[in-house]
Amino acid sequence: MTARFITLEGIEGAGKSTLAKFVLAYLAQRQIPGRLTREPGGTPLAERIRQLVLERGAERLSPVTETLLMFAARDLHLEHVIRPALARGEWVVCDRFTDATRAYQGSGRGVDSDLIESLAAAVHGGLAPDCTLLLDLPVNVGLARVRGRAAGNSDRFEAETQAFFEKVRAGYLELARREPGRFHVIDAAAPLDAVEGRVERILEDLE
Q: Which residues pair with 7 in a beta bridge?
């Protein structure tokens, strides 16, 4: 069976981490080897970069610096985790990938799409997800979820404005419109069993 690269995308509070675990459990039930990982992060050094990106420090990160850090972490992640796992025949389930950079840094921060695409070409070239699950929900619902559990300890992204996340959400939906064969837009405000049922049907089509 061909190894698959599956990514989960969406704004904060969409439930990506919960659904990623569901996907991994689905694969295990069918004895399909799977590797669960996340971005930014996935390797020890990439996780350190993640901390730099998320922490609310005194030194401001410009949108371009933020973008470069994301791709630095991604390069490590690809070299040490994603490519080796795919080569071993494992299905890789990744919480965020380059579409997150396109939506957050591109649509949200206004970073030039040409810069993002040139970095993407340099870092992962022709490697792209086989399937992207876009968990979509209204921004106010997602923010209420994440801020309810953050208890005043929100990171740099969770502390962003609703207007920022509206741009991010619009960016994601535009990406999905451009690549309907790869993206599956899922109503993340629906009951969890309905979301899982939809994802299970998508995964069955990948086997």
A: 94, 132
